Automatic annotation (TrEMBL):
The lineage of its organism: Eukaryota, Metazoa, Chordata, Craniata, Vertebrata. It comes from Prunella fulvescens. Residues 643-667 have a biased composition (Basic residues). Residues 507-517 have a biased composition (Acidic residues). It comes from the Eukaryota. One of its GO terms (biological process) is maturation of SSU-rRNA from tricistronic rRNA transcript (SSU-rRNA, 5.8S rRNA, LSU-rRNA). This is Nucleolar protein 10. Residues 1-343 form the Nucleolar protein 10-like N-terminal domain.
Length: 667
């Protein structure tokens, strides 16, 4: 696909594998786009329509090549092969034209009142039923060569139609999401299905009203309906509820529906994917997702071959052996598939390297995205293997050396694994880890004899892993709690060892079933346990006495240190011109100096040392009162007290004089 035609021809001369490639039908393609593809009833001819320019091509399967090509005046919406071969064809064109072709070419051309979207041929009456952008269904009788009375429906527009091949019931899908069924004999409507309501289920998400985009009958009773929102509904004509609802999960209109009777499959396609699923269970059989958008799907009768019309020049042909045998005109495909199954070979791109976007960023080639040096494929790109090697050498010139070192390290580790492995103790709580390892070994021996399951080790448990890694969990053996608890821990471990030894002796002697030894053993255990308790109490008392003595020694040392330390006086120098008041005043002064001028003015205004007033001119006048020193303040207070004392003395003297004049002085 990446090569030009000239390079392809050059490769075909040189490469044997390219010469062996299969091209079923020569030039099976359209100039630009293919829109519809159909197979004649005898299976000999495949007809396809497309653009540009609008044309129809007929391919002869017996000759594996194109039989003829005819150009048309306007694009074809859909077409129908009326005969067993290509001798009678009807084309519905986008300009409201209906064109008839015979074996020799163009035969007749007529026009319908409104734009058509689909049509069906009723074989018993030779009527063509046209549906489109109208509420009417137009009927054209090919035997009489004239239009008949149209069918009046309730729909505003119709998209698709189909006629049942068994009882010739005419069904049409409307833009409102309904299917109307008509009887051609009486020209009356016999049924109405609301598919838009039935397509909404708990698992589906629908945006807008779903219209009918595909319609296909299967036998006398089954009918499949495709919606514009990507759902396929399978109906039994005797029920208004669907048997199964299948969602494509793409939200795209269903373009085509086909039935495969051998495996009970329904082949439904939207513009992106072709899905094959079981019509009873809805289980996916397989799916195909071509590179280009799909316009139509055609299943070759009684075979496993599929053909698709795409938004690309080339029309795809798929052969799936599970669906059925190959057609008789290409029966050699069965032998090829059998050989491929016997000798499976994976496809290897020798000249290209697949890289992801992250790989390109690591190589420094992200700027090549979108250029001809990178070919987009799936979730990455294909690039020339020579360019990849050059870029890798420039990005990491020591890659081979690193690879060599890694291989040497792996070999050394493999040889080390054959040596005797020593148990490594953790860096934190080594004594506790050693104790746990010893106890674990004893318990394993005991469990083997008793045939019990081993308990998980604390060293391997992730919940206690931090206790042997973090130094904060280091056990302080000099702490008061550990020293008081240590006698109990040591005694418990000794007791466990005694029990294990005693059980081993009992097992060796085989006296487990006798009653008297059990009594003796229990008495011995009780006596030993009482001795252990007494010894533990004594050891705890000893530890407490030692702790008290240590506390006394610490207190005495503190008292000695306090007595030895002498209080030395500290001297502070006062600047010249300043008077020492107190340390608090200096701290206040420092805080006040850190404040802004505005804050200091507000504070002085509160204290009364500053007076701010407005003048007649509009400016402000500020009057400051200087602060007095501490000595001046004390002198003023002493003068004030002295003046008050003198006033009191004067008052008392004048009072005495007045009383003497009156003769009222008493001793």
């Amino acid at each position: 696909q990446w090569l030009s035609d000239r390079k392809k021809r050059a490769l075909q001369k040189k490469d044997v594998d390219i010469r062996r490639r299969i091209e079923l039908i020569q030039d099976f393609e359209m100039p630009t786009v293919s829109t519809k593809i159909k197979v004649s009833r005898d299976g000999q001819y495949i007809m396809a329509v497309g653009t540009y320019k609008p044309r129809v091509r007929c391919f002869d399967t017996y000759q594996l090549s194109q039989k003829f090509e005819r150009c048309l005046d306007s694009e074809v919406v859909t077409f129908e092969i009326l005969s067993d071969d290509y001798s009678k064809i009807v084309f519905l064109q986008c300009g409201r034209f209906v064109e008839f072709h015979s074996q020799h070419g163009h035969y007749y051309k007529t026009r319908i009142p409104k734009f058509g979207r689909d049509f069906s041929y009723h074989y018993p009456s030779c009527d063509l039923y046209f549906v489109g952008a109208s509420s009417e269904v137009y009927r054209l009788n090919l035997e009489q060569g004239r239009f008949l009375n149209s069918l009046q429906t309730e729909a505003s527009e119709s998209n698709v139609c189909d006629i049942n091949p068994v009882h010739f019931l005419f069904a049409m899908g409307t833009a409102e999401g309904k299917v109307e069924c008509w009887d051609p004999r009486t020209r009356n409507r016999v049924g109405l299905l609301d598919c838009a309501l039935s397509s909404v289920t708990a698992d589906t998400e629908i945006e807008g009203l779903p219209s009918i985009s595909a319609l296909k009958f299967d036998g006398a009773l089954n009918m499949a309906v495709g919606t514009s929102t990507g759902q396929v509904l399978l109906y039994d004509l005797r029920s208004s509820n669907p048997l199964i609802v299948k969602d494509h999960h793409y939200g795209l209109p269903i373009k085509s529906i086909q039935f495969h009777h051998q495996l009970d499959l329904i082949i439904s396609a939207d513009s992106r994917i072709v899905k094959m699923w079981n019509k009873d269970t809805g289980k996916i059989f397989t799916s195909m997702e071509p590179e280009h958008d799909i316009n139509d799907v055609c299943l070759y009768p009684n075979s496993g071959m599929l053909m698709t019309a795409n938004e690309a020049p080339k029309m795809n042909i798929y052969y799936i052996p599970v669906l059925g045998p190959a057609p008789k005109w290409c029966s050699f495909l069965d032998n090829l598939t059998e050989e491929l199954e016997e000798n499976p070979e994976s496809t290897v791109y020798d000249d290209y390297k697949f890289v992801t976007r992250k790989d390109l960023e690591n190589l420094g080639l992200a700027h090549l995205i979108g250029s001809s040096l990178l070919r987009a494929y799936m979730h990455g790109f294909f690039m020339d293997i020579r360019l990849y090697h050059k870029a890798k050498m420039m990005a990491n010139p020591f890659a081979y050396e690193e690879y060599r070192r890694e291989k040497i390290r792996q070999k050394i580790e493999e040889t080390r694994a054959q040596r005797v492995q020593l148990k490594k103790l953790p860096k934190v709580n080594k004594e506790l880890a050693l104790k746990l390892i010893e106890e674990e070994g004893e318990e394993q021996q005991f469990s083997k004899k008793r045939k019990q399951k081993n308990l998980p080790s604390l060293l391997k448990d992730d919940r206690f892993k931090v206790m042997f890694e973090n130094p904060d969990f280091q056990v302080d053996e000099q702490s008061e709690e550990f020293r008081l608890l240590n006698p109990l821990v040591s005694k418990i471990s000794e007791k466990r060892k005694r029990k294990l030894k005693m059980l081993e002796e009992l097992e060796a002697q085989g006296q487990e079933e006798e009653e008297e030894p059990e009594g003796k053993a229990s008495d011995a255990e009780s006596s030993e346990s009482s001795d252990d308790e007494k010894g533990w109490v004594e050891e705890v008392r000893k530890q407490r006495k030692l702790l008290r003595q240590e506390e006394k020694l610490k207190r005495q040392e503190r008292l000695k240190e306090d007595q030895q330390t002498l209080l030395k006086p500290q001297f502070f120098e006062i600047k010249e011109g300043e008077e020492f008041r107190s340390f608090k005043d200096s701290a206040k002064k420092q805080k006040l100096m850190k404040k802004t001028l505005e804050d200091r003015l507000k504070l002085e205004e509160k204290l009364g040392t500053l007076n701010v007033s407005d003048t007649t001119v509009g400016s402000k006048q500020a009057t400051f009162k200087l602060k007095k020193s501490e000595q001046q303040r004390k002198q003023q207070e002493a003068e004030k007290r002295h003046r008050q004392e003198r006033k009191t003395l004067r008052r008392s003297a004048s009072h005495l004089k007045s009383r003497r004049g009156r003769g009222q002085l008493f001793h």
